[in-house]
Amino acid sequence: FAAAFAAFAMPANDRRKRQRTTTHSTRTVRDVVEGAASEESDEDAVPRVPGAAYGALLASLGARVGDSDDDSDGGSSEDDDGREGAGGSSDGDDAGEDEDEESSSEEADAAVASEDEDEDGEDEKDEDDAADDDGSSEEESESEGAIDGGGGDEDGGDEDTEVEGALRRHVRLGERLDDAASERLMTQKVTFPRDGATNGYEGANGLDVPSILDAPVVSQAKLAERWKTVTGSSGFASAKQQEFYSMIASYVDVQHGDRALIGDQGAAGQQLNDEILDAVCLHVVDHVTRTRNRVMKNNEALAKKAKAGKKVMEDDLPRDQGFVRPTVLFLTPMRNVAGRAIMRLLDLCPAAHGRNDSVNKLERIEEDFLAYEGSDSDDDNDSDGGGAGKKKKKYKGYVPEDHKAMFKGNTDDHFRLGMKLTKASVRLYVDFFGADIIFASPLGLVTALQDEKSAADFLSAIEILVIDHAHVIQMQNWAHVITIADAMNALPKEMRDCDIQRVHESHLNGFSKHLRQTILLSAFQTPEQNAFFNRRCVNFEGKVRLKTVHKGVLGQLTIKTRQQFERVHMKAADVVNADDIRFKYFVKNTLPRIRENPEPGVVIFVSSYFDFVRVRNLLTKEEVSFAVNSEYTEPREAARARTLFADGRKRVLLLTERAHFYFRRRIKAAREICFYSLPEHANFYPELVSYLAGSRAVAGSAVSVQETTHVAGVSALFSKLDALKLERIVGTARASKMTANTEHPMFLFV
């Protein structure tokens, strides 16, 4: 493979390198802007089909289901977008494939099929009619200029738009990377401005923040029309969306730490009123469309030269592809989150509208990712009196609205799905090597990577990485994200129908990771996310992050109680021994107070499972009567532990943040809340403190709640290393004073 690599790539590389100047710095590559032509929009309004969410889903995509009987008569065929080198395995000649039937001939790479359970993981066969594409091939191919692989010059007479210029510049300048530039990007220390206390985006290492766009600039008139139809405006919904889209459209890495959870959903399960998700989906669809159109136009140019009898030299071949077809990876924590993103992307994608079979396997999307009918019925009590055998469902206590919105629907965290976009259709559940966009959970992708040595090859050409709801993924296993990032953008172990002469030179040289844009979306920033963004996101364009000033959650407390924050003295150099220092402080100062308290009802909250194990072993050694609620405790045992604690038979309840995140069970008879470590989720703080409102002085006594309400019951340990957690709870201004003040280790709030 190495010999073939050198034979194909090195001669062209040597000639080009002699013509190059040195690599531009991060600040000097952001100057050229170019644009694209547009094409006419044509969509058909179609009536809704009866049938619950599936019918609404079809209606939202504009599918005509009345003529479905004629679909298999050979009247439709999908266009071939000409990407034979990167993803030819996804194109077939058979028609009328039954989507519920298992294929007898599985692909050689079925180990990394799009879905892990009883898949018909073979590529969806292309069966669209050429009549549907009359004239569209020429129009769409002209919507983007070709990238000349020889010298990086651009042809095409139309003036390019700003976003088009960002993509072209990004590809062109990426070809100029060399070993020295790569080493500098891998080893440089990332620093952000420390001054200022206002919300807004800030660039790393002196990077100028990209200019704000007045409106979304896309490659096709159809896409612009879909954006206007779906969002109700040709512009942006808010200044927040305008700023965010301007950042991602410039192809810099973006860390957005203010990702709000939106509960609004459409009849088909798509996410509504989510400005951040809408901007990401628009950017992804536009990027895939531009990439496809560039390949198609180059194919046409080569075909014209061949027809005219002109010999095409190696230096004249366009460098417009990666080793494989997939260019976008969308990581989400659970199926329901992925399903909402998939449906919103289909809403915005012009290819998903206008024909009977524009999108295939919609029923399966409903079953695998949405399933809202079943999940909705789970929340309702079965009150109909039909049949003595039916049991009335047990009443469920209060569950916060954010928890309901996050865990509504299918919450499975092991899945993966490939999506292929063409000019006239969208194909779901295609093989990864034939897909344009991959939706997956970190766990589902890591298990796929472990199947075989060459399983990571489908990640070798990823150009956009989207990590949505990173704070939820961190409650699962953040190490999986790191594993995926390390396996991404590496040279493939095997070649799969790849035209090596048309692969980007940066990919051949192993620099594709420096052209990958990472979009990290989270409700808040954490040290783990910051470390990932600073060390494993090495885009040569630079990186920006959203700086947020927090007001804190102390004003959300529903009861008046004494809150004592105790600072554990640490230096920056103590980061390695931070857990040991905190544990020693707890043993020396906090545990004696708990043991001396004559009354039961102490809840010890621990954010890390490793700290939980340490504290649990300590309480066992000190013979403290305690019960446990962790993420690994069986539901029956957890309920029994809470009952023993509420009755006073257990003096202490040890609670982990992940257990509270997943179950949000209300705790009764709590008299004191001890935060061994502050919660990552700031809203957990007032929620846990509110449990003090119903405490009793003596378990089982007949004294009224009003007479025995515990008014002094919160203690929290924090250190300088907990600055991000602390500012979300007490506010940015207070947190800076509390972490900087070394003379007074105690801070009291009433």
Q: In words, what does this structure look like?
A:
- 45% of the residues are buried.
- The chain is an alpha/beta fold and 750 residues long.
- Strand 12, helix 21 and strand 13 form a beta-alpha-beta unit.
Q: Would you report the number of β strands?
A: 16
User: How large is the share of residues in beta strands?
Assistant: 5-15%
Describe the main β-sheet briefly: 9 strands, mixed
**Widest sheet: strand ordering:** 1-9-2-8-7-3-6-4-5
Mean pLDDT: 77
The quaternary structure here is single chain
Indicate the low-confidence ranges by residue numbers. 1-54, 63-80, 84-160, 373-393, 696-711
- Rg over CA atoms, rounded to whole Å, is 28 Å
Number of discrete helical segments? 26
Instruction: Sum up the overall morphology in one term.
Output: elongated
Q: Kindly report how far apart the N and C termini lie.
A: 69 Å
The structure class reads: alpha/beta
- Binned, the helix content reads 25-40%
